[in-house]
Specification:
Structural class: mainly alpha
Helix content: 40-55%
Distance between the termini: 59 Å
Radius of gyration: 15 Å
Shape: globular
Largest sheet: none
Order of helices and strands: HHHH
């Protein structure tokens, strides 16, 4: 596999934006709405980011970004787990 030129980023800014939103727990549909793009475009950005990062899936891609410093822990907002509302 050919190496990347030193001045070329590992992933594009747009793909990194998609990965940051995914790291914050957003679904593909939510990411698409936030970025005003089609959900298929989100899926394409994710797939290409996996290839560029050598990742197997969404979680692995985010982990790679964290380890390589592409996403910083302070950029991830931890929130309480989603729960189903119970009706009385």
């Amino acid at each position: 596999m050919r190496g990347l030129p030193a001045d070329r980023p590992l992933v594009t800014a747009r793909r990194l934006e998609v990965l940051r939103l995914a790291a914050n727990g957003h679904t593909n549909a939510e990411i698409a709405r936030k970025l005003f793009i089609a959900e298929d475009s989100v899926k394409s950005h994710m797939r290409l980011a996996y290839e560029q990062l050598g990742a197997r899936d969404r979680t692995h891609a985010i982990a790679v970004c964290l380890v390589r410093g592409l996403i910083h822990p302070h950029e991830i907002q931890l929130c309480p787990p989603r729960t189903k509302e119970t009706t009385a």
